[in-house]
Amino acid sequence: MVVFHTEAGLQAYVKGKRILGKTVGFSPTMGALHEGHMSLIEKSRATCDISVCSIFVNPTQFNESSDLDKYPRTVEKDLKMLEAAGCDAVILPSVKAVYPKGTRPTERFDLGFLTQPMEGAHRPGHFDGVVQVVKRLLEMVLPTHLFMGQKDFQQFSIIARLLQLINSEVKIVCCPIVREADGLAMSSRNVRLSAQDRKNALVLSSTLKQIKAQYPNGDLSALITAGMERMNAIEGVDVEYLEAAHQDTLRPVKRWADSSAIVLCTAARVGAVRLIDNVLIP
Ligand code: AMP
Questions:
Q1: What is the CATH T-level fold of the domain 2-175, as seen in this structure?
Q2: Taking the model in full, what pTM does it have?
Q3: Nearest residue CA, atom 17 of ligand 1?
Q4: Rounded to the nearest whole angstrom, what is the distance from the C-alpha of residue 260 to the centroid of ligand 1?
Q5: Would you list the domain boundaries of the chain?
Q6: Which CATH fold would you assign to the domain 188-281?
Q7: Each residue of 67-110: pLDDT tens digit?
Q8: Which own/partner pairs from 95-99 qualify as long-range (CB within 8 Å, at least 24 positions apart)?
Q9: Whose CA is nearest to atom 5 of ligand 1?
């Protein structure tokens, strides 16, 4: 595996592959890698000739500076995992390398309603930072394919729309959520959970699963209200949202019959850690 720190080095490598007609899969990450990230590399390896990963904790997508400061960083371990997974190249750029002219966004995109609900409503400015960094990383890496996780479903929808808006030829691939054996969605932030919070965190996935199990019976809005009560009843768990939305538009869905493709999303603070999860229905 080749490790790059600069755009020029990586681009020379990628262009050398693309000129030979090879496809290049790219999986952007913020490091503290786990099996969820590895599933992106696996999918990339199965789909493309060359697989590239980036590890960059993007300061512009953190709406809370304490979250940025506490974000876990395990670069040595990450590189070993990527090597073992058969990743071909990784870029570890500095903030200066990603944003040579400063971190203030210079472009605006009309992503319509997609950026407004759920994470958009609860993390002001978050998606501006996500769009800014993904656009910039695509310029740096020049991939043919982009691998992103369903774990961040709203982020995936927004980046898919961004690619349309900029007429990008990059093909985006959504990779299913990888979970711990007990159902908790894998996340870099899980290492920050205390033993009790780790147990409490199961209420996110179990509530989503319970509601999905009712489909297409029962009243969806009532199920969601009951689900929120169930989550909030646990001491140390504070729900930010539990919402059903259309998978393609992210517009709210009130009844099962209103959409044939629903995504049920939640975000909650468990102790000091903010977690998200979702399920696709049916
Ligand atoms: P992050 O490092 O958290 O920014 O995540 C990098 C990429 O990995 C994003 O596309 C995430 O959606 C994806 N990802 C994170 N956790 C998981 C998971 N448990 N299963 C599948 N993909 C994931």
A1: Rossmann fold (3.40.50)
A2: 0.98
A3: 36
A4: 26
A5: 2-175, 188-281
A6: Pantoate--beta-alanine Ligase; Chain: A,domain 2 (3.30.1300)
A7: 999 999 999 999 999 999 999 999 999 999 999 999 999 999 99
A8: 95/59, 97/5, 97/6, 97/7, 98/56, 98/58, 98/133, 98/136, 98/137, 98/140, 99/60, 99/136
A9: 29
